[in-house]
Amino acid sequence: MTDPNLSDSASFDLLVRGGTVIDGTRAPRFRADVGVRDGRIAAVGELWSARAAQVIEAAGRIVAPGFIDAHTHDDQALLLQPGMQFKASQGVTTVITGNCGMSAAPLRAGVDLPMPMGLMDGADGLRFARFGDYLDALRADPPALNAAAFVGHTNLRVWAMNDLGRSADEAEIDTMRGLLREALEAGALGLSTGTFYPPATHASTREIVAVGRDLAAFDARFATHMRDESGQVMESLDETFAIGRALGVPVVISHHKVQGRANFGRTAQTLPRIREAMRHQCVALDCYPYDAGSTMIRTDRGMLDGRVLIASSTPHPECAGRDLDDIAKEWGVPREEAARRLQPGSAITFLMDEDDVQRVMAFDETMIGSDGLPTGTSPHPRLWGTFPRVLGHYARDVGLFPLETAVWKMTGLTARNFGLSERGTLAVGQHADIVVFDAATVRDAATYADPEQAAEGIDCVIVNGVPTWAAGGSTGARAGQVLTRGPMGGRERAG
Ligand code: ZN
Asked: Distance between CA atoms of 362 and 360, rounded to whole angstroms?
């Protein structure tokens, strides 16, 4: 394990001493010290006599690769809240942004953004006309965590089309293709779509394939919030696989779930279908560990069929954190009417079956992604709780899978699927993204009633060799890097 050329009196910038390593490959844990030099892992093994500028004592703790959040909407938060406490506090060291068809770029200044894009538009209205400008802004004012970004298909539609109520024509497709090429040249991971949402509902499969035609030439990926995650979920899966095959690129099924009481249990059908597709093409998927979702307030698509908590509302900010039923009663109107009056805004909707949530999470190819929305004062608790909830509640308390598997779903598997080959595993030569946590006490503290709570049991989070979270708080370090696309299994470029 130890570098054979390394004398044991070697010196490091940072030494994580006495811990138990879970290396992100699903291999069994082992006792080892970890030496860091120049932002990379320089040694893993017995390093008791090594000298180091800084030592982190990890006796009785797990030392793992920093977690990679496979699905986020942190595009603008990385600039507006660069400390990224809601993620750093969970052990996250890298976020994948630009999901569900929505990214920070390209966006024209001054254009009204249709929902749900409005949800992602920061208070300061940070918008970038070119994707490369967004990445440059991150490089100029680095956040605490690494970031890699998709470019959103809905952004391209909003840029290129005057009427979103139809499929794009040839000229519009050409414009979108050009914007996508520009983003890919700047280093975007790939293209994401959100055909579930009104601004992209009318995009045909053909439009998406035509816009995405250049993805394969760039070794890029296709990620999707599918058209339908309820009654038509099987058809949506088939569309996703067909797009991946037509483009010849890997696909990522975002936040896989089935919604609505009538569909409870149907992950027993979707997962075998996904496994079957995996025999013929590259398919990845992620999920968050909760039976409630969160998105824009909608009155269609059965989105009000279960309990609804209002997370934010532009016309009625005072309603954030309240139950839609209580608001409707107070206003003396049906809940649908109350929901309409609260628009635009976001809601937490309880539309999933816990058995489905667990079945998807336990599926061996499922990555962990928070899908948190970093806006407002009453976000879904997944924003602060996703990773410790999987480690504590689901792996330790429920026993859904071993801790090694939980870590792999947040690290090695995710790095593999997004081509981040120098991250996601704890081994000599890898970037020094590391989390130290207590397997016995790690737990999510964020709840629906009190969502902005840092997790417990996360001792230390190191990003590119620099401690970012320690002793229950942010260190103020901003060592995050912009990660740009590398081929599957190839080397990413950082910087
Ligand atoms: Zn989504």
From this structure: 6
Distance (angstroms) between ligand 1 centre and the Cα of 438 equals 31
pLDDT in tens, 123-164: 556 889 999 999 999 999 999 999 999 999 999 999 999 999
Centroid of ligand 1 to alpha carbon of 380 (angstroms): 14
**Digit-coded pLDDT (tens) for 228-249:** 999 999 999 999 999 999 999 9
The CA 321 to ligand 1 mean position distance, Å, reads 21
Here the tokens at position 125 are 């209205």
Whole-number Å distance, alpha carbon 148 to ligand 1 midpoint, is 17
Domain range 67-291+352-375, its CATH number among 3.20.20.140, 3.40.50.300, 3.30.450.20, 3.40.50.1370: 3.20.20.140
Q: How far does residue 99's CA lie from ligand 1's centre (Å)?
A: 7
* Multiple choice CATH, 1-65+420-443+455-473, 2.30.40.10, 3.40.225.10, 3.30.565.10, 3.40.50.880: 2.30.40.10
Q: 103: exposed, middle or buried (C-beta count within 10 Å: 0-12, 13-18, 19+)?
A: buried
CB 425 within 8 A of CB 24: yes
